Amino acid sequence: MIKGAQLAGEVLLDGRDIYDPGTRPAAVRRRIGMVFRKPNPFPAMSIYDNALSGGQQQRLCIARSLAVSPDVLLMDEPCSALDPTSTRRIEETIRELENQVTIVIVTHNMQQAQRVSKNCAFFLAAENTPGHIVETGPTEQVFESPIDPRTADYVHGRFG
Question: Torsion over CA of 34, 35, 37 and 40, rounded to 10 degrees?
Answer without folding.
Answer: 110
